[in-house]
Protein: ABC transporter substrate-binding protein
Organism: Sinosporangium siamense
Amino acid sequence: MFFRSPPGRLACATLALGLTLTACGGADRGSGKAEGGKPQSAASEADIDKIVWGMAGNPSMIDIAHGLDGASTVVQTVALDTLLTLTAEGKPAPAVAESWERADPTTYVYKIRKDVKFWDGSPVTAEDVAYSLARHMDPKVASQAGSFLTAMKEVKVTGDHEVTAKLKRPDTSFEYVAASAWQIVKKSFAEKHLRDLGSPTVLTMGTGKFKLVSFSPATGAVLERNEHYWGQKPKIKRLEFKVVSDSETRRLALQSGQIDGTFDIDTQNARRWTTLPNVQTFFARANAVRYFSFDVKNKPFDDVYVRKAFAHSLDRNALKGADARMVLADNIVTEPQLVALFGKEGAAQFVAGLPKYEFDMAKAKAALAQSKYASGFTLDVVHSNRDQFWSKLLQSLAQNLKTIGVTLNIKAIPNDAYVAKLYGHQDLGMNAVNAAFSTPDPAELLPVMLGESGTKPNGFNLANYTNPELEKNLTALANTVGAERQEAVKNIVTEVADQVPYMPLYYDENGMALNKKYVFTQEFTTWSGQDWSALIKRAA
């Protein structure tokens, strides 16, 4: 999971995200065709000297330990290999590990390719691979990715090209960690930079398709093709990421050719992008959800009726907009994850029976009247200044709540400061979050958004929500398969819908816009993110 700062970006190895392509014209969803329903043109095998990729957000670190945010992971995906990758269907597949097996419920054994080299030409060893995961458990590193590893006991070298991960307890979702948090870095390099690996002054040493040349949080990053790469090399020789934070400026930059593509389409105003004459656009349902979190351990959200009053006070339908590529969220689990677990019909049946909180100020007033704070209160709420949609939502909510005696003082703060606040787990109160997930497994989402382990710094349980019955269901989720696992998810999601520690808002779509000089050579799906740079070729 990461906090999805930029709107409309692909889900990569730690962005991720099973639904098929949504055609940009909107009429042929799932067709695999580009703008207007026309097939993409043929691709050339000629090299591309340079691609400039526009970004809405500022990458913070080119390392998942201290850069677990949307903008950073876009760069990490092309620079840093993971042990496994994800297929177009979102299933784990070989990458730096050529094969793997689950030897027993708590033991995973990985066979490492012998032909993988770092950017400097040195060979990747099993020791490098083991260290690349173990470092996230080191308190000196203080890794933001540590929340993925609460079940980890140890990872060690067990052969010349073999690494074994041992868990404290069974965790059926651990297999996906190797395709998300397990970024391969050179041990000798990383040990010298426990806290600043991936920073502008230190950079990093990886094995990905591109080697990092320079990096600035303010302007972006420059990478060059890694000629030592063990797998399919991209046709792009030089890849530049350019920060263009304003949506309209970014759109005009694409139209004029100053940038060649972007994942950061303004999905709330998609038509402005889909009508660009020299650009093809693609959309797919994101493995992401927008929500409000409420800190249930502190006033006023320690009262469930306050949380229900807030849930009834927002007219989500009116705020969505006719051109928005988003749908109302029924619960905190993403659509791709629900479909992967229950199937399309099963997911729809389950969601239909969940408690709903339609916009109804009479019900909001009645709920507040049942709370400990029936006379009303004033609350300070901050949000990231990156996505103006949050301001629109919060201002509307504030206007409605004022009619029942609740005053919200809303303030936008720099995105970096807001993300630091969330990871710091301090003064949580109410937060506006766009969270993305890297796998089709609900066990990636639920154990980090809920439960005791996520209530600490670098944890993702922004609601501080836990109880013994919930912990029991979270344990069942990690230890079971099939119908038992489905039942655990049902129990957890139903409880959250009833108690409202989180208020689900919208499911967005991932978007990509690409100059028609180039071709995206496969169907654009929820899971296209990991290999995106190798899928771009020059149009024939």
